[in-house]
Amino acid sequence: MIAALVEDRCTNCNACVRACPGFVFDAGADRPVIARIEACQTCYLCELACEADALWVNPDEASASAPSPAELARSGQLGQIRRDHGWNLPLDAGQLDDYRLLGPLLNEGADIAARRYASRG
Amino acid sequence: MIASTILRADVLVIGGGMAAAWAAIAAAQAGASVVMADKGAVGTSGVTATGGPGHWWVSPDPALRREAIERQEAKALGLGDPEWMARIIDLTWRHLPDIAPFYPFGSDGSGGRYVQGVRGPEYMRALRSLASAAGVTILDHHPAIELLADADGAIVGARGIALDSEDVWDVRAPTTLMATGGCAFRSGLLGSHGNTGDGLLMAAEAGADLSGMEFGPSWSLSPAWSSTRTLPYFAARFFDDAGRELDIPPPKAGHAHLQALGRAMQRGPVLADLSDAPKALPGVLRSIQPLTLAAFERRGIDLWRERFPVRLFGEGTIRGTGGLRVIDDECRTSVPGLFAAGDAATRELVAGASSGGGAVNAAWALSSGRIAGLAAARQAAVSRRPAAITARGLGRVGLRPRRAPQPLELAALAQAVGSAVHGYDQAFQRDKAGLARSAATVDAHWRGLADHARAGGRALVELRAQAAMTATARWSLAAALARGESRGLHVREDAPATDPAKAHRLLVGGLDRVWTRADHPVTQGVAA
Ligand SMILES: Cc1cc2nc3c(=O)[nH]c(=O)nc-3n(C[C@H](O)[C@H](O)[C@H](O)COP(=O)(O)OP(=O)(O)OC[C@H]3O[C@@H](n4cnc5c(N)ncnc54)[C@H](O)[C@@H]3O)c2cc1C
Ligand code: SF4
Ligand code: SF4
């Protein structure tokens, strides 16, 4: 679930309010408020929308607990998803150059399991 | 509901995933004024956005296409339509590259670009940009609640709720297109929280019928704490919590793989061990699927070395097959003025009795979206009647209860309905008695909703979602009961054989009373 909105990073741009598919945030005077957490689907897409790297989603679909802002900053996880995606890079930056490997790696995994199963004792 | 905003358009598209976007783009490019109303936000809502759909991708070489269609027909087990298959292969090939101005296509490894598989967030961002550029009016956070009909019963738009103000919106259009996706019954499946079958309910209230609802359920494997994409788990070995390796048929075994996992999970925790994963995978998972990795990194788990508990997440009608029946080659439903596309429509035409997940569904969503969008634009251009001023709201459950309104315990209801469809105990042992028991449970919930449920504002949106899941479960169970054989995704423990006499589609519909009926045979039996 959405677990942290790091106040001193937030510019109150409301990008997360607009982007969240579950309409989890309400706009606020200083920053958005997490108003309907029960509608959060742990999709991390608000993190992609936040250019200030102020949001952190707990990967547990049932937990909204978060490390402290200082720990989050140290963890390197703030903004990591946006960087990993190359979300704000130009379209020709090669951010999806490995994407073609998805299908072959999936098939390779399935083959490994099938071979292992066929040769089990 | 009294509307505070009334808009007019040639085409109203309900939904905000890939089918809705492709439909809106096609209609707008054909000159129609288009309003697209989404429960979530176009770009992030729906299972496309968190997925990474590989599309059915066959180059225009006639031999290759013929071969691809033959393979797919074999999987469809008598219920597919080769002409539809040829159409969606062709449309996908021609139109997926349309996103290039807004999508960062990667390399194909040999100097070209890799087109057929696209990453969800970037894909939906590109489709949103393309829709905006085509002049589509996008209403985010504007769930539709009910369809509107004129005196003849033709659909002339829809009403819904604006989530921020909780005001009622009303869009009048001579053609409406339902692209609300499939229904995952709130199983927690990645990206599916808003996929509650709303469009199926709205269309059924207008009299639409459905087809293929028996083909499911299916599940995808993920860490127990949240649903992710499944790429890392294909080579997994499985252990019980005492460290004993479990004998699980491989993913290629399909139902047997899931059934063995489901049965083991009924006995106790199941742990996955990914140490057999393809050697190249750990090095590239981050650049392919950053979100999958985040699910582990943020819990401090090294997924390649440490065992972790796994669970099956139900996929409902998303990787099941059923949805609104389309009655012609332009994706009309059985209700005048109403079209359907994507997972909201049945995918039997192209998937038959199998799952369309893995390539065919995405090609269908793109193609049915474009086909329906163009047809709706064309129909709107010739009708151009001022969309009726007096339109009747067709919504019943949650809006116009049969008896006195009463508060209902929604959380319990959702759970009961979800487990009637996806619960390991029922679903892996589909037989007549179990299905009938599940159907009775779900029927009781339906009666409570239809008799007493009423709400307004955001509470109404949630109430309608619950009602839609309940209705969808009823149709799925009724169809599963009626198909007394096993075929493709529909596996009946009490009727394991495929019956050649049942190579026909099965229609289902109705609200107060659910009915099923055989559709006309699609394959001619060999003359005796
Ligand atoms: C994890 C995963 C991986 C997949 N991978 C593949 C693959 O590799 N290849 C493949 O072919 N298929 C794949 N699929 C299936 C494929 O993603 C779907 O077939 C496709 O996304 C369907 O698009 P859609 O637009 O119909 O539905 P969705 O993308 O689910 O969109 C539904 C939309 O309807 C909106 N909506 C719902 N209710 C309302 C309402 N009341 N009012 C307004 N809007 C509403 C939602 O907000 C959402 O925007 C995958 C599915 C999953 C879950
Ligand atoms: S997107 Fe980030 S910076 Fe903008 S309001 Fe949300 S949390 Fe604050
Ligand atoms: S994780 Fe997804 S659903 Fe949850 S707040 Fe962020 S965008 Fe919204």
Walk me through the structure.
The complex is a heterodimer of chains A (121) and B (528). With 121 residues, chain A is α+β, with helices and mostly antiparallel strands. Chain A has one domain (2-120). Chain A contains five helices and four strands. Chain A has helices at residues 15-19, 45-49, 69-75, 80-85, 102-118, and strands spanning 2-5, 25-26, 33-34, 55-57. Chain A has a two-stranded antiparallel sheet with strand order 1-4. In chain A, strands 2-3 form a two-stranded antiparallel sheet. In chain A, a hairpin with a 6-residue loop joins strand 2 and strand 3. Chain A is elongated, with a radius of gyration of 19 Å. Chain A starts with a strand and ends with a helix. Chain B is of the alpha/beta class and 528 residues long. Helices cover 36% and strands 16% of the residues of chain B. Chain B is globular and about 70 Å long. In chain B, strands 1-9-8-7-18 form a five-stranded mixed beta sheet. Chain B folds into three domains: 5-213 and 317-393, 3-Layer(bba) Sandwich (FAD/NAD(P)-binding domain), CATH 3.50.50; 219-314, Alpha-Beta Complex (Flavocytochrome C3, Chain A, domain 1), CATH 3.90.700; 410-518, Methane Monooxygenase Hydroxylase, Chain G, domain 1, CATH 1.20.58.100. Chain B is built from 16 helices and 20 strands. The chains are: A alpha+beta (121), B alpha/beta (528). Chains A and B meet through helix 2, helix 4 and helix 5 of A and strand 4, helix 8 and helix 9 of B. Bound molecules: flavin-adenine dinucleotide (FAD) and iron/sulfur cluster (2 copies). One iron/sulfur cluster binds next to helix 1 of chain A.
Describe this protein with a few key phrases:
heterodimer, A: 121 residues, alpha+beta, two-stranded antiparallel ribbon, 5 helices, 33% helix, B: 528 residues, alpha/beta, FAD/NAD(P)-binding domain, Flavocytochrome C3, Chain A, domain 1, Methane Monooxygenase Hydroxylase, Chain G, domain 1, 3 domains, five-stranded mixed sheet, globular, binds flavin-adenine dinucleotide, binds iron/sulfur cluster
